[in-house]
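Q: I have two molecules that I believe assemble together. Could you output structure tokens for the complex as a whole instead of separate predictions?
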Amino acid sequence: MSKFKKKKGSGLPAINTASLPDIVFMLLFFFMVATVMRDNSLMIENSLPTASEVEKLEKKNLVMYIYMGKPSSGYKKYGTEAIIQLNDRMAQISEVGAFIAAERNDKREEEIPFLITSLKVDKNTNMGLVGDVKQELRKVNALKINYASIKGDVSKN
Amino acid sequence: MAKRAAPEVNAGSMADIAFLLLIFFLVTTTMEKDSGINRKLPPIEDSEEDVIIKQKNIFTVLINNNDQIMVEDEIMDIKDIRQAAVEFLDNGGGTDKDGNRCDYCQGAKNTNSSDHPDKAIISLKNERKTSYGTYISVQNELVAAYNVLRNKRAQQLFNKSFAEMQKNAKDVNWVGNKERLKEQISQIKKEYPQKLSEVQQ
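A: Yes, here they are, computed for all two components at once.
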């Protein structure tokens, strides 16, 4: 009799999860290959404008980023007017030249003529600030710029 | 004594470890590709020498503090800018600096508009309170005007669009004569040079 009872109590068989690590590793490798490290966390609002005639920036190591926009909600101590962020800190317009010089120092000499400054500007920023930054860039002879924008229709701006 | 088999390593937590790594990479990395409108700023010149450019060769676009757009002293909607710029650039009413007429232009040959694509300059002016979004929209339309003309010309000469040619030039897997392609690209760039100046008031 006991033979029959044993079989009755086993219930549903457990699902074999031996291949779960393989699946997760596969996902992990996909993300490791397809993505790049986030290099700085933004302290400003940064919703880029859309444009249809965009070109891709090919060489990531030759790009310098200048962020502009209103301080985001956690950083209201910097005021409500649009400001500049260089790397991980807020900066004044006068610091842009020094930032470019520092970035150039990190690069090999033969790469310097190919450096591009990417302006990542929030679409609600006033052009006054952007114009001032452009003027600073002209002073330090960093003439290649890129207005970062997302591919799309201009009517969303 | 019987040989004891090595105990099996419990791999049950492998999935947890892998999940942990996966979540770490999901959080710290971004997938976005950088893209944008490439521009070149003019260098600061020391000389005070003024270059005299005829008024008819300049296409003035002004965006004021209220994001209103004025093209050649008339208020214009953003969707009409592209067409207006194409008409201005492709006018070909006169000759270039060497005295050659623009034989590839298909414009109206109006004597009050630009002489030659080589001489035609688009001047984009903005004020301090212009919003960046509007500025990029206008900038985009003007670049689009150049691209329209270049595409048309490339289609005429080489039977493919300029965008396609540029894509092929960058593509390492493209089969064909790269040297010739690059020559063709620079020929079109020379016929419709991008002369877009940005001024802030």
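A: One point stands out. The beta strands of chain B are 29-30, 35-40, 58-63, 69-71, 74-75, 121-126, 196-200.
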